[in-house]
Fold this sequence. Notes:
By secondary structure, this protein is α/β, with parallel strands linked by helices. It has helices at 30-44, 58-72, 87-98, 113-121, 138-150, 174-187, 210-213, 242-249, 252-257, 262-273, 276-302, 327-333, 366-381, and strands spanning 16-17, 81-84, 104-109, 125-132, 135-136, 155-160, 190-194, 219-224, 236-239, 316-320, 339-340, 342-343, 356-360. Helix 7 (210-213) links the parallel strand 7 and strand 8 (219-224). It starts with 15 loop residues before the first strand and ends with a helix.
Amino acid sequence: MNSFPTIQLSTKPGVIDLAWGQPDPKLLPVAAMQRATEIALQKFGADTLAYGADAGAGPLLDFLRARIEKDEGRALAHEQIMLTGGNSDALDQIATHFTEPGDTVLVEAPTYHLAVRILRDHHLDIVPIATDEEGLRINALQEELAELKRAGKRVKFLYTIPTFHNPTGVSLSEGRRRGLVKIAAQEHLLLVEDDVYRELAYDAPASPSLWSLAPDGVVLRMGSFAKSLAPGVRLGWLTGKGEHVQRIALGGLRDSGGGVNHFTAMTIAALCEEGMYDAQVETLKRAYRERRDALSEAIVRELPEAAFAKPGGGFFIWLNFPNGFDAQVLRGRAPEHGVDFIHGARFFVEGGGTNALRVAFSLYSPEELQEAMKRLRSAIDA
């Protein structure tokens, strides 16, 4: 009798699968989580195992408020922050509380393909906005907003990943960040900022978040422990206008079940208070920086025809091949050569990306990443 699978990750034997934007299991903080669990149970007792407050576990919210104010220079009132079950949960709840089927939402082209799946679950009309090497094109956004307004459509929000973008790795330039929040304020456009990679900056601090730059009410910013600690904790946070945050915090889901993942949140609070979170972030940054550099060097050596920008953070490198190159055809052949990836068309809502592909450097060692590029070279030559 077959057992149910335990984890999401599934790779083919002998294949270096660069499609997975997941951490190397050897980097996950098993010992730290074990210690934090013991501390949480000792310190908080039965409160650790009770239904949590609607907005989330108080000790973790206290830690996050202080950390965000210190790092981003913007104070948070109690009603302006809440815990979530990670960014996927947060996006789903935003769509639940801020849209109705048939409403229009905007995304970048390309964008995170699994976020699109969540938006489609809500039967929304998804409209892409073009990007370039600096991120979202502000002029393209203005043109699309004007066109939609002429068509009598009101956009409910723009989902954007301005910092270490998935899939491109690009960070929106600071000038465009300020331009974007200005336009959003003028057009009463809600910005839903996916800020999951902020902690994973390898060369310099990440650019200011849209939330930290915008007037109150313009941005709902989603943060997560998935990339900076471990994805299995299924825990994140949301910052924004008190009215917007409380619409979700006081909704039926949390009224019925209490704060999401309360036991995990209390455990993470203990881990953060003991300094173990900061230590884990530094461990991951060192490891991922080395892997990013190894993969970048291998791309230059093995795939000189591919154009790419070395990302300042995150998990991904986006490769653009010359016109006429078909990444989807290559992906069909690549596993025969012991390598895999995601072809670029997966990240576009209305076509595009046929000559592009995304590779992740988080799961494999530098040596395996270098071998993967040799295998990809072999697949292309074949």
